[in-house]
Amino acid sequence: METLGILRHFLATRWRHFPSRPALEDWQQKQLKRHLNWVCRHSPLYRDFLGKPLDEFPLMNKATMMAQFDQLNTRGLRRDELFDLALNAEKTRDFSRSNIADVTVGLSSGTSGQRGLFIVSRAERLEWAGTIFAKLLPTLRQPQRIALLLRADSSLYQTVHRGRIQFHYVDLSQPPEQWLESLERFQPTILVGSAQALQWCARNSERLAPNLVVSGAEVLTPTDRALLQQRFNCPINEIYQCTEGFLACTQRDGVLRWNEDAVHIEPKWLNAAHTHFSPIITDFRRRTQPIIRYQLDDVIEVGNMPGVFQSIGNIGGRCGDLLQLPGADITVTIMSDLIYRAIALASAETLDYRISQLSAHRLRIESNAQHSAIEQALTTLFRQQGALGSLEFEHAPAPVWQATQKQRRVVNAWTS
Length: 416
Known about the structure:
Layout: H1 2-14, H2 21-42, H3 62-67, H4 69-72, H5 79-92, E1 99-100, E2 103-107, E3 117-121, H6 122-136, E4 144-150, E5 165-171, H7 176-186, E6 190-193, H8 195-204, E7 212-216, H9 222-232, E8 236-242, E9 245-250, E10 256-258, E11 263-269, E12 276-283, E13 291-295, E14 298-302, E15 312-318, E16 323-326, E17 331-334, H10 336-346, E18 353-357, E19 362-367, H11 371-384, E20 392-397, E21 410-412
Parallel strand pairs: 4-5, 4-6, 6-7, 7-8, 18-21, 19-20
Antiparallel strand pairs: 1-2, 2-3, 8-9, 9-10, 11-12, 12-13, 12-14, 14-15, 16-17, 18-19
Helix pairs in contact: 1-6, 8-9, 10-11
């Protein structure tokens, strides 16, 4: 039954086509209206919003979602009990314990300062699996061996584990020497993981030869992509998957696009030029834990690739990590993706680095090489963006990344 459910969603997603942008928006509005009406009838938090348009619903973020979790979810589940369940599963590394009836419970990584709780039903797991396969798998005609390099396993990722699709879970909390040999024996056709974990595999394994690499959970910078491309010599795709849903991915045209057949995106603009925004998302498929007008802390660069689904230029990290530098009369905000590109052009070498703002005028460059070239590239960029005054740079060796923590190439340790 699970396989049939996944196949149904796979086919629905794979073959659903919209002839134009207006056709997509019309279809999306119908899905939103139906979904909001259902949620208002089943979620105590939204009971008074029945019949109201989306823009009248309140904004939500991680803090408010966790504070209102008991009233938000449609199963009558209690936040504190679920936290205890999920934490115990992580501590014991036995993720079969993270279920209540047909509901899977999980935790986000907590890089924003607060761990988020997510719950999905069995039906939602099947829909997630069918959708993600439809978006990411090149074909179902050939068997696929998919390796997942994760900080925490979940029955969400174990929904399919039979037939022509096999999964191999790598627990990144364990030392690499404990899992690399089994990963190489598995010989994945598709390798999925964080940018950090994928880079480690690229540098430390000569036997892995996937047909497709999928990066998610962390920013994939141009430098990171170049390393993976050089080592694996296969397509390097991206997936924008977080606690709040399956938001975007590299689609079959090779372009990173929003999954607008599942989520509605409102931009909160971060600059007057409207080149970067934080997304406010509404997932019109999530019912157990409704995601309605949820404002993410991420920085998204607007894409310019034509198509029915909107493209993404770059996923640039957290808003709290944007650099804030003194300008003539105002503070100048430096978008992270500009820093990634500047450093990628600063050296022909593949650089491992982290840029941290320590105060208004002081920054630290941690790198394996080319400190002076990076400093010059950053100085030029900052001047182009309107930052004035002398900046102090300190140099340090390359950062030591931890597999259980997200890799952040740009960090604002001053204002965040």
